[in-house]
Amino acid sequence: MIEKNYQPADIEARMSVVWEDSRAFKAGRPDRRDALPFTIVIPPPNVTGSLHMGHALNNTLQDILCRFERMRGRDVLWQPGTDHAGIATQMVVERQLMERQQPGRREMGREKFLERVWQWKAESGDTIINQLKRLGASCDWSRERFTMDEGLSKAVVKVFVELHRDGLIYKDKRLVNWDTKLLTAISDLEVQQTEVKGHLWYLRYPIEGKTFSPEDPSTFIVVATTRPETMLGDTGVAVHPEDERYQKLVGKNVVLPLVGRKIKIVADEYSDPEKGSGAVKVTPAHDFNDFEVGNRHGLRRISVLDKEGCLDLLDNEDYLRDLPEGATQFAEEFNKVDRFAARKRIVERLESFGFVERIEPHTHMVPHGDRSNSVIEPYLTDQWYVDAKTLAKPAIAAVRSGETTFVPKNWEKTYFEWMENIQPWCISRQLWWGHQIPAWYGPDGKVFVAETEEEAISHALGYYVEQEVITVEQGREMALDRNKREGFITRDEDVLDTWFSSALWPFSTLGWPDATPEVQRYYPTNALVTGFDIIFFWVARMMMMGMHFMKEIPFSTIYIHALVRDEKGAKMSKSKGNVIDPLNLIDEYGADALRFTLAAMAAQGRDIKLATSRVEGYRNFATKLWNACRFAEMNQCAVPDGFEPAKAKETLSRWIAHETAHTTREVTEAIEAYRFNDAAGAIYRFVWNVYCDWYVELAKPVLLGPDSPAKDETRAMVAWARDEILKLLHPFMPFITEELWEVTAKREGLLALAPWPLKPSEPTPEQLAMLAAAAGPTDPLISPALVMPIFDHADFTDPKAEAEIGWVIDLVTQIRSVRAEMNIAPATLTALVLAGASAETKERAPRWTEVIKRMARLSDISFADRAPDGAVQLLVRGEVAALPLKGVIDVAAERTRLDKEIGKADADIKRAESKLANEKFVANAAEEVVEEEREKREAALARKAKLLEALERLKQAS
Questions:
Q1: 509 and 485 in one domain?
Q2: Is the model's pLDDT at 75 over the cut of 90?
Q3: Bridge partners, 98 (sequence order)
Q4: Model confidence band, residue 480 (pLDDT cutoffs 50, 70, 90)
Q5: Are 40 and 90 within one domain?
Q6: Alpha carbon separation from 393 to 388, 403, 424, 545, 695 (Å, rounded)
Q7: What is the DSSP letter of 929?
Q8: What is the domain-level CATH number for residue 821?
């Protein structure tokens, strides 16, 4: 028995237990042994994370695909898991230690600290997994993985060692994003560009061989910089090769102010003649662009900052080399001064010598660490790198050939642009939490990369015996006695970038490098659903690793979803205070309402503007379905054994079968094409408009009438259509549909495992071959069948039934529209004249007269050769239906009202177009504000069109 009121919280808690107890989402179920696999790997959320709206969208879309394919009979593996999130997790635990006034990380030591991190992970690391379950994610939770599980760690070590052996991992001194607070390199994704109001300093660099005079421009060249403190590391000045002002100076030297070092003027297109002075200082060790300029011209790299962002001058051999006498005094004075304090003092010193030409206010973007919020330094340091350029080539070819496709396709351009210009990938991090790099250093710094310490020691002993650093006998003793080799080699303290382990996610989670049955069956995966912001950091790297180690693409389709913004189109951020918590929405409206909202708004390539009112609206949609199912139950609607909808006799029954078939095809094709919004829109219209508003209403006279064969058929058909709705809606709203299936359908088994109403196409020969290979020689492929035998009603059509019921619906709809336009009160009944009606209309109209009169608020329906004078004429499926309105409405007053409303619409259009025509407004206003004005204009134009149509109709009644 269905409860009177729909209470999502009760249903969701109960259904979660039902699914878990029945192991409904487990991959490799016995009943799916012969089915084609369908695999998705979850983008592993950070173990420190909490469900945010991006997670909610991403996982809702994945779940729709998984539930859809599971109902289509596929052996679905939705692989869940979490990422160890190096920096984030280490910060959480360090903050916890500080708050509890306990010893810090360094006081505690590496081993003890890592024990605390694992302890925290065991206690608090499953938060986001439980939140994903609340959302309804149908992952195979028995296979949950963590990027630092023993098996995944084994895969990480093997990959590192093999890539190093192949020369694709190496150590190099390059610039990295350096966090001076966390004291580690970080990835580009962890850098936030923040707009800062600063200054642009124009500095005079004396030309060698000339006596410097601030009043004589021929004695110096002016460079513009936002960072005077890094000038101490300048090794060149760049000018554009076509800039006539400086062509005679190219190849000459300038003398670096305060320092006295001679540096060369080089011609390079990086310098922009239109910006600043047209000349730029080149500091290869402190700027990514300057690093490339320096490489092109063979300039020295002099790092003048230490890891904490202080000037490092006194013991800095690179800095002190080639300095004139007396310059070390400056090094002593400024050594270990913080970079921002040094900036101020250096500018003061430059001004005192006349080296500052002018200072201008300057707003520019400054990189900040997303977790430390400290200014990020481009820092020259030794790090481990992956030769991404080599690994990228097969990954590029796979997308170019169509083996892997992006949806929407325009993201392929972004992928190619990045992959074809890819830089070496810095994979080392100066942290303790993570996969420690499997590299050991000998007493002379020689590197030994190995999967185990024992293997590294074996390599080291062999090497040093050969080099005669130790004797053969010492080597044997050390191999046997750990105490005798203690300290002989030391392990690299750094850990790997989090993205390194997650790049292996599609195959490491299946048990690779072991040759497991899961790797054979579920790799490659079918689809990846993710956001555009990690195409480079995760998607591209999975492609590279998959192609290199598995010799196959990791996924055939990459679906890129857009951002979830607030209702005005602004990006959500804590600083703006516009973040919407999905858990709060689930608490208030239910997970189903939130899921349906996100799916309904997930148009390809378009960001989602999320308003709480939309979620509330889809909660009302769930209530509408709930009440419709209660109505069916109260009227004893049930599907009898052996019932075949295709054999129904009643026109209304055949019409709902026709509409159900149409919707089934529409929803299926839309999900297959990743058009989630179209699929959600189709099922929404069918449930709300077709089934609830029309079918149930048209069926009421029969259901409430005397017993008859028509009533029996109608009861069966109402129940059958309800069951099909529950199936089609299940991927979007799993909780309420599973509850209603259990309570009303009275079927054995779960809706989550029930067959989808439309059979998938037969498997291709390639799919069958893959299935046979996955089954293995001891588990032969028995049958290519993918689903249980079902009535494939999607092939059912009845144009005659659709024409009749469609005519009734269109007629009532248009009459209601006119009544609303003309402000006719509900209590006022109007007459209807069917003018020049066809024989078919004359034959069908009497069957529906009472229904039409009731639903359209009519006093009478009659036939005539032509429409009476003063009647509003409607064209319904090619025939005229007339509403005589003389005496029913005040035509003059109504015309005045419509003219007034049209005037308001014109004013709104003019106001919006005026703003949009203003170039300054479009250029300077926030993106969401401009978009809001466009929407206002479109809404006003649409409103005006409807008002003009109503005015035209009114003229007919004059």
A1: no
A2: yes
A3: none
A4: confident
A5: yes
A6: 9, 14, 14, 11, 57
A7: H
A8: 3.30.2320
Task: Decide if 424 is inside a domain.
Answer: no
- Which amino acid, 471? T
Confidence bin at 788 (pLDDT 50/70/90): very low
**Cα-based torsion angle of the residue sequence 65, 66, 71, 74 in order, rounded to the nearest 10 degrees:** 110
Residues contacting residue 686 through CB under 8 Å, at least 6 positions apart: 659, 660, 663, 725, 728
Which residues span the domain enclosing 917? 893-957
Query: Could you give the CA distance from residue 430 to residue 496 in angstroms, rounded to a whole number?
Result: 9
**Same domain? 811 vs 919:** no
Per-residue pLDDT band for 657 (boundaries 50, 70, 90) equals very high
Q: What is the pLDDT of residues 257-316, one digit of tens each?
A: 999 999 999 999 999 998 888 999 999 999 999 999 999 999 999 999 999 999 999 889
Whether residues 220 and 349 share a domain: the answer is yes
Q: Please check the confidence at residue 779 and state whether its pLDDT lies above 70.
A: no
d(CA 329, CA 350): 16
Q: Which of 344, 369, 394 is the last residue of a domain?
A: 369
Is the domain of 242 the same as that of 276? yes
Q: Indicate whether 778 pLDDT > 50.
A: no
Residue at 407 is within a domain: no
Q: Residue 787 pLDDT > 50, yes or no?
A: no
| 326 three-state secondary structure | coil
Helix (H) or strand (E) holding 505: helix 505-508
Binning pLDDT at 50, 70 and 90, where does residue 902 land?
Answer: confident
pTM for this entry: 0.88
Q: Are residues 221 and 364 in the same domain?
A: yes
Cβ atoms of 361 and 199 within 8 Å: the answer is: yes
Name which of 770, 761, 768 is nearest 784 in CA terms. 768
Domain check: are 218 and 84 in the same one? no
Instruction: Kindly state the tokens that stand for 926.
Output: 């926030």
606 in any annotated domain: no
Domain membership flag for residue 431:
no
295, containing H or E segment? helix 288-297
Q: Are 863 and 846 in contact (CB under 8 A)?
A: no
Is pLDDT of 790 > 70?
no
Task: Show which of 865, 889, 913 is a domain's final residue.
Answer: 889
Contact predicate 190/177, CB 8 Å:
yes
Question: Do 768 and 804 fall into the same domain?
Answer: no
What pLDDT digit, counting tens, does each position of 840-874 carry?
999 999 999 999 999 999 999 999 998 888 788 88
Cα–Cα distance, 820 to 452 (Å, whole number): 79
Q: What percent of the chain has pLDDT over 90?
A: 74
Burial class (CB in 10 A: 0-12, 13-18, 19+), 395: buried
Query: Which domain CATH number covers 540?
Result: 3.40.50.620
Closest CA to 461 of 450, 471, 451: 471
Q: In 3-state terms, what secondary structure has residue 945? A: helix
Residue with tokens 């300095």: 323
Q: What is the dihedral of CA 819, 820, 824, 827, to 10 degrees?
A: 90
Nearest Cα neighbor of 310 from 345, 350, 342 is 342
Give the angle subtended at the CA of 352 by the CAs of 349 and 353, to the nearest 5°: 95
Q: Which of 100-114, 379-393, 583-597 has the lowest mean pLDDT?
A: 100-114
Q: Annotation-wise, does 307 bind a ligand?
A: no
Cβ distance 554 to 698 under 8 Å?
no
Cα 213 from Cα 354, distance rounded (Å): 8
What tokens were used for 265? 């003027």
Pick the range with the lowest mean pLDDT from 93-97, 551-555, 888-892, 933-937: 888-892
CATH code for the domain of 213: 3.90.740.10
Copy the structure tokens of residue 706.
Answer: 């005397």
How many domains, the chain?
A: 6
What gap in Å lies between CA 458 and CA 463, rounded to an integer? 9
